[in-house]
Amino acid sequence: MGEDGHDVVRVDGTGTAHPVGKLASQRMRARQGAFRLMPSPTHVVVMRRVDLIDAPSLRLSGEITSASALCDIVSMIGQSAWSGELAIYDGPTNRSVFFEHGAVVGALSSAEGERLGEMLYRYGALSLEQVQEVAKAVTGDVRFGEMAVRLGYLSREALFQLMGRQVEEIVYAVMRAESGMFYFLDRFDESRLTSRQNLPVSGLLMEAVRRMDEMRYFRERIPSAEHVPDRVPDRAPPTKGDVARVFEAIDGVRSVADICRVVGQGEFDVTRQVFQLVQAGCVTVRAPRPTGPAAIVALFNEAMTMVMREVDAVRRGDEVRQHLTSFATGAGVYDALFMRAGPRPDGTLDEAQTIENVAMLVGPDQAEAMLAQWLYDYVSFAIFIAEPVLREASTRGGAGAPQLAKSVADIISPLVVGGAGRP
Predict the structure, then answer these.
(1) What contacts 24+ positions apart, CB below 8 Å, involve 216-223?
(2) Alpha carbon separation from 294 to 300, 350, 367 (Å, rounded)
(3) Which of 230, 226, 229, 231 is nearest to 288 (CA)?
(4) What is the pLDDT of residue 239?
(5) How far apart are CA 389 and CA 119, in angstroms?
(6) Distance (Å, rounded) from C-alpha 232 to C-alpha 45?
(7) 50 and 61 inside one domain
(8) Are residues 69 and 209 in the same domain?
(9) Phi, psi for 16 (deg, rounded to 5)
(10) Which InterPro entries match (predicted)?
(11) What is the pairing mode between strands 35-38 and 17-19?
(12) Stated pTM of the model
């Protein structure tokens, strides 16, 4: 049951079912008709439509309560050489894996990032503009992949290969599912297959388990696909193989997801290769650049709070504030940028007012880039004047100038692209 109670149905003393929540009402309305109540434990209700005589039979079903729980189900289906559809419902996300004699022959998903157009974009086969153009051209008779071929954006051979990768990615996502419900039906509608693959279950299981184990390890150094790898100067790069291709694509601006599109590989493979480069000391990884003025102001506030806390602790905060006021006045832009927004005594700015001010200064199109530049420069100057103050007071046992400078640099590094100190 959902925590919000939207999926609750109440059965009263007469046996009448009353949907209590909005979601429950929607689901019940979508199932109008006569149902046969099947035998089941008292805490579970199972019903089957009476009029759909040819509907597939339910061979397995259950709750998903932990990650990798479905690995055993997929393994059993493969070993038993069953044919049918494994359907997984996880909130708004639905996935289906189609089996024939124990092998996976296809898969479908409603999850963001797993539909064909998004997969082709993630693997670099289509640009975002091409995906949008193909989507507009799709009709009831022509599916997305076929339309992409007709428009000349990729060959049928490339499409078939990438559709195989899509099926693999959906299967791996199924086996990572941590919650929801699963159902195995003894057959499926052939017309739902967008392509017919032939993927052995044993190989998919081994790869899924390997990915789950290794990705947990990789995430300690590369927390997400939006993080940005950057080269370490004066370190010898790899000279061959996929790792070399990934290294060549690293420019300090592209995220892991961007690199996937450049080299035509999936997130797991690129993350693994970036991890190898990190372990070899050739690459560092920094947090993703914030998107939107609000995220930029939030980083600025976090950094300035740290700076002002340290200088206030050594009773030199007022001196630093005076220097910052002089810097802001002399720069010619901060008086307008900070108008009615601060800085407050702790160094922070009012988010909404700052966003309004920067939009008035440079317009909405340039607001994000200029705000990042100006706030980065301001924090950099704050560190510049705080460092000597903290060095003089280093005996107090506080963070000290070097530690503070590094901590603040880590916070504001997402404001920098290419390490040049400018967006």
Answers:
(1) 217/275, 218/271, 218/272, 218/275, 221/275, 221/278, 221/285, 222/256, 222/271, 222/274, 222/275, 222/278, 222/285, 223/287
(2) 10, 10, 11
(3) 226
(4) 78
(5) 53
(6) 60
(7) no
(8) yes
(9) -85, 135
(10) PatA-like_N, T2SS_E_N_sf
(11) unpaired
(12) 0.69
Establish if 348 belongs to a structural domain: yes
- In this structure, the answer to whether residues 278 and 297 fall within a common structural domain is no
**Which one-letter DSSP state was computed for residue 124?**
T
Residues 208 and 237 in one domain: no
Structure tokens at 160: 């078939």
Q: Is residue 112 part of a domain?
A: yes
Backbone angles phi, psi at 254, to 5 degrees: -70, 140
- DSSP structure string for 37-93: EEP--TT--EEEESS-TTSPPEEEEEEE-STTHHHHHHHHHHHTT--EEEEEEETTE
Max CA pair span of the chain: 85
Length of the chain: 423
* Phi–psi pair at 266, nearest 5 degrees: -80, 170
Tokens of 110: 């409603």
3-state helix, strand, coil in the chain (%, to 5): 50, 15, 35
CA 416 – CA 412 distance, rounded (Å): 8
The H-assigned helical ranges of 314-363 are 317-331, 334-337, 351-362
Same domain, 329 and 378: yes
Cβ atoms within 10 Å, residue 215: 16
CA-wise closest residue to 169 among 122, 95, 114: 114
Domain total for the chain? 4
Does residue 21 share a domain with residue 124? Answer: no
* CA count, 13 A, side-chain hemisphere, 282: 17
In a shared domain, residues 373 and 408? yes
pLDDT for the residue 416: 64
Tokens standing for 390?
A: 């903290």
